[in-house]
Amino acid sequence: MPDELIFEAEYKGWKAEKKESLDAKNEKEASAILFEINQICVEKSFELCEPDIDLKKIESIASASNSASRKDLLAACKSKEFYHLAESYYLHCICRKK
Description:
alpha+beta
């Protein structure tokens, strides 16, 4: 059986599928496929946070500067229990800028 990467996800009408044969591919190509799968999951996980954190507000903070205060990120949260999600999304936005 040839090596292959298979990823399938389905959640509340959202579907993601990636199937790639690795027959003639090397580790770098396999790594790139896994990175793509990771990006799909990360983006969806932040979308699911939307009711609890204001993604647009965090994107605005990230585009304005490379440092955000805890107060700024808390202002983007429905409650302080979601601060870690806001902080993760902020870092995600900063990394996407580079």
